Amino acid sequence: MNLYLFQVVNGIGLGMIYFLISVGLSIIFGLLNFVNFAHGAFYLLGAYLSYTAVSITGNYWLALIIAPLCIAFFAWVCERTLIKRVYHLPHMYQILVTLGVALIIQELCISIWGPIGKSISPPDSLKGVIAIGEFYYPQYRLFVIAFAAVVALLVWYLLDKTKFGALVRAGSEDAETVSLLGTHTHRLFSITFALGVGLAGLAGVLAAPIKGIHPFVGPEVLGIAFVVVVIGGMGSFTGALVGGLLVGIVQSVMSTLWPQGASLMIYAAMALVILVRPYGLFGRA
Amino acid sequence: MNKKTSIFGGVTIIALALMVLMPILLPSVTLATEILIFALAALACNLLLGYTGLLSFGQGIFFGGGAYSASLVMLHLNFGLISALITAILVGALLALIVGALAIRRTGIYFVMLTLSFSQMAYFLAYTFSDWTGGDNGLLDVPRPALTLFGMTISDLQSSEAFYIFVAAVFAIVFVFSRRVIHSPFGTTLVAIRENEGRSSAVGFSTNHFKLVAFVISGAITGLAGALYAMLLNFAPLSNVELLMSENILIMTIIGGTSSLIGSILGAGSIVLMGDLLSSIWPRWMMILGAVLIAVVLFLPGGLWGGILSLTSKFPWKKVKTNVTSEVTK
């Protein structure tokens, strides 16, 4: 029984990381109508940057702040120089260009950090376990859940309660009208892209002490992010949260029983959702 | 338009010339064989992407399916060369029928996502059923049977030169067949669907049937390529069904150019060659591939072949191309 509880809590942690990855992909698709196949690569880069930051400064907390900011800045540069040139092109071209970006980032990571994976340990203050009755659980994993939940709340507040969020939501409906009403949509687009990708970078940093850093994980992460976004509904915040948790828990519980089966299940679920309910569980038709 | 020139015209002559020149110019015949095998896969992908406008991440399913099925019937049922290849073609077509029938129910990004999810499912299935596929190790000791026709052994195909000639012959047949397909009324309808699906269906074409047939043809050719690849390597690795294989086939197709079948030879050739020459000098050559992919999409939408065509604009098959487009606009 305890084992299953353990797996479910693990799954919630994993699910929160999946949420952080997917919500960025989802917002970018919603506002910019842009398919970012480089999303998994940015996650990878975030994890590697945190590795370097930790090995230079020795401080995980610093890495947790610096690495996602660097990723967001890098994404902003990418958007200004390259991505904005493909907004008007069909999705097919966006996919191919970002596939190229993903390849470049992945190979860049391997040439800097080597083909063998890296690992970082959680900060000293979070190395122990917490005991709740008979149930022992690693502190760091609980921290990830709590931290991701706070970030989720902030993102929700940003999207739902602020002027920026209103512009993003209005832009998702009709970017041209928002532009005619006097908003610099290209600036809005850059910030949104940087924000969405920065969240993927943050997910990479949070996941690094748990899952390690492997140079070829990008496509796998991208695949899972697409599963989450499709199941939850493209462009939906709630969808990304519920979808992320669902996929995380399924993967975690199945991991001891039949890990490939879990992957089979989630991709089958993705296909099923597209065929039966293409706008996802929380998307609008 | 003179139909004869469109089928046996300049493009076919260039393809034949390339097939003769490649083993002479390249460092090894095996490399030339590999190029032709991937050119087959890229050509099949081109039928979907270039002529029907369908971006499929599922080509690896058919490639791997062809490789596994041909290997299995040769290993366990003692199938000969031709019957093993026919098995691969049928399995590729069947897999494409299943994937296609489901995927074409959606368009645009959802279509892409469906092919992506099927591709991932195929990978995990192949990984799970390791009794059949060898799992991570792949299927080992895949034979390369002798070529026999009417009970006569023509060649044992053991030398790499003999196998190259066989693969080249297969490629030539598929190439001419594919040119026939794209220049048939069926092929022009596919182009019409690519250009404007709504109007094509309004005119009365059942566009989904056309897309499905395109899928099946593409799957059959890709399955054949997979089988030949297994025979070349004497090995059917799990990487055949990985998403990366689908991506590679796609990238070859794009970089070569989607406006002509020749592009597929150029695309497969340049990437296989780049991999062979650069990987020993600089293992991270894929970085260049990423940059080339971006550059081609942004600046050279016709791919390498489109670039060559625009440099030499006096080529006779320019006319063929404009004919196709004008037929569409009519």
TrEMBL record, chain A:
The chain crosses the membrane at residues 12-32, 37-54, 60-83, 95-116, 140-159, 188-210, 222-250, 262-282. GO terms for molecular function: transmembrane transporter activity. It comes from Neptunomonas antarctica. GO terms for cellular component: plasma membrane. The keyword Membrane applies. The lineage of its organism: Bacteria, Pseudomonadati, Pseudomonadota, Gammaproteobacteria, Oceanospirillales. This is Amino acid/amide ABC transporter membrane protein 1, HAAT family. InterPro entries: ABC_transp_permease, BCAA_transport_permease. It is found in: Cell inner membrane. Keywords: Amino-acid transport, Cell membrane, Membrane, Transmembrane, Transmembrane helix, Transport. Belongs to the binding-protein-dependent transport system permease family. LivHM subfamily.
TrEMBL record, chain B:
Its main location: membrane. The chain crosses the membrane at residues 7-29, 35-54, 61-79, 85-104, 111-130, 162-178, 212-237, 249-273, 285-308. Pfam families: BPD_transp_2. Keywords: Cell membrane, Membrane, Transmembrane, Transmembrane helix. One of its GO terms (cellular component) is plasma membrane. It is found in: Cell inner membrane. Signal peptide: none annotated. This is Amino acid/amide ABC transporter membrane protein 2, HAAT family.
